[in-house]
Amino acid sequence: QSALTQPASVSGSPGQSITISCTGTSSDVGGYNYVSWYQQHPGKAPKLMIYDVSNRPSGVSNRFSGSKSGNTASLTISGLQAEDEADYYCSSYTSSSLVFGTGTKVTVL
Amino acid sequence: QVQLQESGPGLVKPSQTLSLTCTVSGGSISSGGYYWSWIRQHPGKGLEWIGYIYYSGSTYYNPSLKSRVTISVDTSKNQFSLKLSSVTAADTAVYYCAREKVGGYDIDYWGQGTLVTVSS
Q1: Residue by residue, what is the 3-state secondary structure of chain A?
Q2: Which of A11, B73, B77, B95 could be A107's S-S partner, Cβ–Cβ 3.0 to 4.6 Å?
Q3: Partners of residue A91 in chain B, C-beta under 8 Å
Q4: Shortest Cα distance, chain A CAs vs residue B120, angstroms
């Protein structure tokens, strides 16, 4: 199984919106609505931000939203804040296993 | 509040077997509804799913690691474990244990992670 493809970096100014893409195949992202997104700050464990493509766990800001079209899922962060600066990873179910994305570093300018 | 804690040697010699245990508190592994997973992260790199186990003992492994990985569960101790055989320097990574939702495959609880270095 190959890692899902994410852009290496995305940046934005405070208050702006950014979108991170996660591209897979019909065997993973395109085939199931089991896409999740994780935020990871340096030296910390990842934190679940979105599950089942577009659902937010309790306690996650509504500035984070997810969507999917075909084989590409997307995470949008609106009203960008300094605390959003982190690495973000997507994941997808595939054939009784899980595959992660390559990761995207979000920089708040 | 569910908590997971990894434990095990931080240094393993090449060709030996890496062994880690994850102790779960605040919830029972036997309650069902969740897979108990291992994920690793090479230094400065992305996340790699290793595999998971259900409380019944059913296991699923990353095909790329399957020949070297064994995940087991001890419900009496509320623990699950990872064994990775024939390790090389390429297995140096932070290893996380985690809880993964059955039918959703999202990971809602993670351990803090433990760095395992493979070196002689």
Answers
A1: CCCEECCCEEEECCCCCEEEEEECCCCCCCCCCCEEEEEECCCCCCEEEEECCCECCCCCCCCEEEEEECCEEEEEECCCCHHHCEEEEEEEEECCEEEEECCEEEEEC
A2: A11
A3: 47, 49, 105-107
A4: 25
Residue type, B91: D
| Mutate which: B69, B107, B109, vs A, most A CBs within 10 A | B107
B104–A52 C-beta distance less than 8 A:
yes
d(CA A63, CA A60): 8
Query: Which chain B positions have a beta carbon within 8 Å of A102's beta carbon?
Result: 46
* A6-47: pLDDT as tens digits: 999 999 999 999 999 999 999 999 999 999 999 999 999 999
Rg (CA), chain B: 13
